[in-house]
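Example record used in the benchmark description.
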Amino acid sequence: MTCVYTTPTGLCPGTDPLSKREHYLSRALGNFRGDERLVNKICDGCQRRFRDLEDVLAHNSPEAFFREMVGQIGRRNHAKKNIFYEPTMGLAPLSVIARSPGNDFDMLWEPIDQTHCRPMSQFVFIRKDGSSAQMPFRLGKDSLETARLFMKRNNCEKPASVAGTWNSPEECGPMNAVIDALSPKGTDGTLAPLKDGVGIEAEMKSFISEKYVRAIAKIGFHFFLKFFPRFTGMEPEFDDVKRFIYLGSASREIVRRVPQTFAIEFQRGARPKNWCHLLSAQCDDRGIEARMQFFAGPAVNPIVWSVLIGKNPSRIIYTENAGYGYLFFKTMENGFHGKRLELKAIRNVLYR
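Model output (structure tokens):
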């Protein structure tokens, strides 16, 4: 046996051992009771290569925002990153933007639980036309120099006023010094912290990067490899999706956003009452497609992604499908964030 990414040529050299515990569903999305691993399909070298894709998925994506709302669900021994302050793989941090209470300008916010947010530690540069630019403040990293560079890049070198808010006493002094230096006289102000947070209507901004889309493709393809064992993964029909995951190059559409929801349902008595992930794949006369939706819930309906894996290489065409839900517990149980449940198809068809 050899790594599936040894074909087509120019991808994996095939020199590393095969992994016995490849997470087809990224570990950053949770650890689920009853889940299984992808065995002897992906080599350790490819797993290391794909870490960059996993990093973007975990820290600079819509899923990264929901991870914060659910509560950090990564590995305990991994360093934690504040995704609202720190860039990931050169990508700007996530932004949650909403109106400042009692003011006429917008601010950056960060969640403190599933229903409340608080203003981030930040400078707000208010332009003369009333628009504003928000700069997260990182103690020990940001200073008057970095603030001036931000102002230049964001066309607010001569602001009408400068405001700021902080979330720890240690930040107050350094931030006030910057505000005093940059504000037109008599226009500066430090906003009172909202330690307990508030409920707000906000806009979350996340750049859909190439690495993020490749991470989505990887999950879909590896899910297919796990639950459709009659395929080796070496079939030439899968060359396009493997080349896209490995290199980011594609001659056809691989990942797309679909408007439909899943045409599947949980087993009796197991309707999702909390956060869950939905993953499925279908093989029929039209080809092989995987679909996924992360952090779906009673009040949230996130993006449904489709991964067009390739044409069906079977000589005899028939419909085959697999679907699983990954349902979060209210609290962790014995190291598990939730459990895996099999999804049943409606009339043996997952989607059309």
